[in-house]
Design goal:
The chain has 179 residues and is mostly helical. The chain is built from four helices and three strands, in the order αββααβα. The chain has a three-stranded antiparallel β-sheet.
Length: 179
C-alpha cells in the first residue's frame, strides 16, 4: 500500500509542477508579446489576448490586498493538501485528487505573481460578454470547482463524505470494497 500511496503523491506532485510551469510560461509569453502592445484578436468582437496587471481579485475587487491574498492562498493550499492526504488511494477518488491539484496549481501560480510582481498577469479576454480578463491559473481553479460540484452532486454518495471531515476515517480501500 505504501507504494500505491507514493505513486499517488508522485503523480500529484508531477501534475502540480507541470501546472505551475505551464501557468508561469503562458504569463511569460503574455508579458513578452502583449505588454504595451495591441491586443491579439483571435475571434473578432468575441475573444482576444489582452495584457492586464491585476492587483486585485476577480472583477477587480480587493485591489492592493497582497497580504490578504497570500494568507488566503496558503490556507486554501493547506486545505487542499489535507484532503489530498486524507482521501483513499483508489480510482474512485482520483477526480477529487485532480481537483485539489488544479486548485493548488492555480493558487501557487497566482501567488508566485503576487510575490514576484505585486500583481497577477492576466491575458484572456472574452470581449463578447465583457468578462474579466483571466489567466491559466484562473482556468485551473474554475475547472476544479466545476468538477468538484459535479462530483459532489452526481458522483459521490453520502458515505463518501466521511473522508472530507476531520472525524472521518482514513482508509486505503474504497468504501465500496469495505465489508
Amino acid at each position: 500500500m505504501k507504494k500505491k500511496r507514493f505513486l499517488w503523491y508522485l503523480g500529484g506532485l508531477v501534475a502540480l509542477v507541470f501546472g505551475i510551469v505551464l501557468d508561469q510560461w503562458t504569463k511569460f509569453l503574455a508579458t513578452t508579446y502583449l505588454k504595451e502592445k495591441e491586443d491579439i484578436v483571435l475571434i473578432k468582437n468575441v475573444f482576444c489576448l489582452h495584457y492586464l496587471e491585476n492587483r486585485g481579485a476577480a472583477f477587480g475587487i480587493f485591489q492592493g490586498q497582497k497580504t490578504f491574498f497570500i494568507i488566503t492562498t496558503l490556507l486554501l493550499l493547506s486545505a487542499a493538501l489535507y484532503f489530498y492526504i486524507r482521501l483513499p488511494y483508489t480510482k474512485r477518488f482520483a477526480a477529487f485528487r485532480i481537483c485539489t491539484v488544479l486548485v493548488a496549481a492555480g493558487g501557487i501560480g497566482n501567488m508566485i505573481d503576487r510575490l514576484c510582481n505585486n500583481y497577477v498577469t492576466d491575458f484572456f479576454y472574452f470581449e463578447l460578454i465583457d468578462f474579466p480578463v483571466f489567466n491559466v491559473a484562473d482556468i485551473y481553479v474554475v475547472l476544479a470547482m466545476c468538477l468538484f460540484c459535479y462530483l459532489a452532486f452526481f458522483y459521490f454518495k453520502e458515505e463518501d463524505y466521511q473522508y472530507f471531515t476531520f472525524r472521518g476515517k482514513k482508509s486505503e480501500q474504497d468504501p465500496e470494497e469495505q465489508e
